[in-house]
Amino acid sequence: MSFKCYYFLQNIGIFAQIMKNYHLLFCAMLITFQMGAQKKNESFRLNIRKATSAIVIDGVGDDLAWKDTDVADDFFMVLPMDEGKANEKTEIRMAYDDKNLYLIATFFNNTPGPYYVESLRRDFSFGKNDNFLLFMDPYNNQTTGFSFGSNAAGAQWDGTMYEGGKVDLNWDSKWVSKVKQDEDKWVFEMSVPFKSIRYKEGVKEWGINFSRLDLGSSEKSSWTPIPRQFPTASLAYTGVLVWDNPPPSPGTNISVIPYVLGGYSENLEGENTFEKKIGGDVKVSLTSSLNLDLTVNPDFSQVEVDRQVTNLDRFELFFPEKRQFFLENADLFANFGYATIRPFFSRRIGLEAPIRGGARISGNINEKWRLGLMDMQTGRVEDMGLPNQNFGVVSLQRKVFSRSSIGLILVNMQSFNYPENPELIENIPQEFNRNLGVEYNLASANNLWNGKAFLLKSFSPTAEGDGISQAAHLEYKSRKWKWRIQEESVGKSYKADVGFVPRNGYVNVKSYLGHLLIPKSGKILSHGPTLNTSYFFNEKLERTDNTNYLLYSFAFRNRSSLNFFVSDDYVELLSPFDPTRLGKEELGLGTEHHWNAYGWMFASKPQSLFTYTFDGRLGGYYEGGNRTSLTTELGYRFQPFISLSANLNYNRIELPSPWNTNQFWLIGSEADITFTNKLFFATLFQYNEQSKNFNLNSRFQWRYKPASDLFIVYTNNHLIAPYSGRTWSLTLKLNYWFNR
User: Fold this and answer.
1) Do 737 and 174 form a contact (C-beta atoms < 8 A)?
2) pLDDT at res. 202
């Protein structure tokens, strides 16, 4: 047996021993809440039958087949109050044939006035549009599923569902829809191929619900009753779609999505590069619910650029993954742990080296088991001395009780052709890094309780790279009360080279307690306080920093909101830190700092063509100084075709010498033009005075066929003195989705 293999097995034994020390925590969370098998809204049942004649997707609804369907109507109000039936009438009908699932929804207007839509952009912002959403749970596991829908202008919405009520809108599939409007109603009609979704064969009952948001009346409604503190996407509150016969088998589904790309780029010195690239993806349905994805020489040039931020944080900032290959069923890989303790973060892959290829298997094995396997290979970067690297992830999840789950994850990063003298190469990754973890997710049948407990162990070439991370929380949310308590610890030697763990060597205890007051009438819909606390300790349990703040929130009936807060902060620096992040002097290790601050956050009602937010923070800062931060975002839309926005962030930091007074702006503007729901143009301008960075990104997209696109992308990135550097590029990319 090799030394590496023996070392790894030995550490797994240590990990197993540690697990014994934490098993009481897991057992306590398992037995505290026994889950009933009965679903909350089991009595809400909609029968679906095979269509008696052809259905044409035109938004008219005059096909004879619709007359032979049952109707889901008599919706319940969720907002502004969940104590009665909706005022705005809605009717839903469903049918199917051998290849497609059909739905037609009619939304009558009890409140006269215009329809409110932001644009024709796909996967629109839920709260800024009159819209309809369908939530499907084909496995009846109340945790995973699919969502489809549209706004009142016909912009499509689709995504995969995870964690019982969250929707990942980065998933795109092939389906068709049409919207028709008149003064009295708007009608949405759609057809979804069975090949575009995943489900278990032979099952005659699916979880299902329908949601409507009508901004004219400020009313959100649902087919089944849902408490107002939960989103209408909550799968715990779905009704039942009853099939006359099991839905037809989708059969073998193979999709090939090749692309061709041509590009030109130029830097400050006038050096230019012509790029030609060919690659693509393959999707294969291994079963009706398990998918294989393959990618060769992937390209992500059309992906939206990151939004710049003012950085006054002592630790690494998080930027979300936006590359399509990593996003389908992403919760299996990326949601293990907490936002600041992730053993796997896909943006670490291909950050500095090209991705040569990869494979992923993800989905449901059956109604209780989910599986995720991923393997990605990057190439060598000669001029930086970076070796070839392989990234592997295994994720397994099993449903327990009604909606809870137990998960296991293994993450492995391995370098090949590793240099004999790695210390001579700057920022070279470790030869290998591995993470092994187990997690329990608690979700009660009525959604009032949720929680999590997990334990992670890292393995690296040296003992200094091995360590433990663990955390747990319990949360409760009712209509008027909410509270949460959480503890977490990350060892100083814990390493997750393929994860996101910005801070090591600490213990953190945090909590919040909130109460909501709900007046019976008036402009204020609800208001109330929330007290938040967060304390950090070193591994000797000595306090290093803490934040306490009291928030008071107002929600108005017109959907605008206003919040006020006061805060108290204490920091003992664990490493030198420049409080301006401008490259100036650093505060010393071990220095202590304490300050108070107050602020506000206001967001206008989304029904207006002109919308705005205004946030402010005033108060103390490091070294007895003061910091003023003001942020505003302005928006105007010429619905449904043009949406304009501008955001400004101003910071003024007053400190003693040698920092003195510093002020800097972050300015951004965006124009989103949707000529049709298939033809889009967006341009984003950003200037960050703190980092002296100017950025411009413009994208033209033509969806000439479902899931097939032509992109033209222009980018310009310019560093301003005292820094230097400028690059610009123009890229043309064409992909096509072939189905078998």
Assistant:
1) yes
2) 85
Question: Which of 707, 554, 658, 730 shows the shortest CA–CA distance to 158?
Answer: 707
Cβ neighbours of 703 (radius 10 Å): 17
3-class DSSP assignment, residue 237: helix
Tell how strand 45-50 and strand 90-96 pair up: parallel
What tens digit of pLDDT does each residue of 578-590 get?
A: 999 998 999 999 9
Q: What residue ranges in 230-347 does DSSP mark as E strands? A: 239-243, 254-267, 272-285, 290-296
Q: Is 377:415 a contact under the CB 8 Å cutoff?
A: no
What's the Cα-to-Cα distance from 486 to each of 511, 516, 536, 548, rounded to whole Å?
Answer: 6, 21, 12, 15
Which domains can be identified in the chain, with CATH numbers? 1-32+329-500 (no CATH), 45-243 (2.60.40.1190)
pLDDT at 424: 62
**Euclidean distance between CA atoms 581 and 314, whole angstroms:** 9
User: According to the model, what pLDDT value does residue 368 have?
Assistant: 87
Q: Which residues contact 5 (CB under 8 A, 6 or more apart)?
A: none
Tens of pLDDT along 154-176? Answer: 999 999 898 889 998 877 888 99
- Nearest alpha carbon to residue 377 among 388, 369, 366: 388
What pLDDT sits at residue 2? 44
Three-class secondary structure of residue 67 per DSSP:
helix
Q: Which residues of the chain have pLDDT under 70?
A: 1-37, 328, 422-427, 463, 465, 740
User: In this predicted structure, what is the pLDDT of residue 463?
Assistant: 66
The pLDDT value given to residue 199:
87
CA-nearest of 504, 499, 494 to 15 is: 494
CA gap 213, 219 in Å, rounded: 6
The helix/strand/coil state of 273 is: strand
Using the structure block, give the residue that is written with the tokens 């059909």.
102
Torsion of CA 727, 730, 736, 737, to 10 degrees: 30
Look up residue 637 and give its amino acid: R
Structure tokens at 684: 């984003």
Cβ within 8 Å of residue 109, ≥6 positions away = 88, 183, 184, 185, 186, 216
Can you tell me the distance from the alpha carbon of 305 to that of 341, in angstroms, rounded to the nearest whole number? Answer: 24
Q: How big is the chain by its Cα radius of gyration, in Å?
A: 27
Is this model's pTM higher than 0.85 or not? yes
The residue with tokens 């890229």 is 731
CA 565/CA 309 separation, integer angstroms: 22
Q: Is 469 exposed, middle or buried (0-12, 13-18, 19+ CB in 10 A)?
A: buried
529, β-bridge pairs: 552
Burial class (CB in 10 A: 0-12, 13-18, 19+), 701: buried
Q: Rounded to 10 degrees, what is the CA torsion of 377, 383, 384, 386?
A: 30
Contact 455, 474 (CB under 8 A): no
Q: pLDDT at position 353, please?
A: 85
| Residue linked to tokens 């945090």 | 510
Q: Where are the beta strands (DSSP E) in 30-112?
A: 45-50, 76-79, 90-96, 100-108
Q: Coil, strand, or helix at residue 297?
A: coil
Cβ atoms of 331 and 171 closer than 8 Å: no
Locate 326 and state its tokens: 């990593």
C-alpha span between 373 and 730 (Å, rounded): 35
Q: 142 CB contacts (<8 Å, ≥6 apart)?
A: 39, 164, 207, 235, 236, 238, 402, 403, 443
Strand partners, 159: 147
Q: What pLDDT does 612 receive?
A: 97
Question: Alpha-carbon distance 40 to 85, whole Å?
Answer: 18
| 237 phi/psi in degrees, rounded to 5 | -115, 20
Amino acid residing at 703? R
Single-letter residue type at 643: S
Cβ count near 90 (within 10 Å): 23
pLDDT at 423 (0 to 100): 65
With the CA atoms of 499, 504, 506 and 512 taken in that order, what torsion angle do they form, in degrees rounded to the nearest 10? -40
Q: How far apart are the first and last CA of the chain?
A: 46
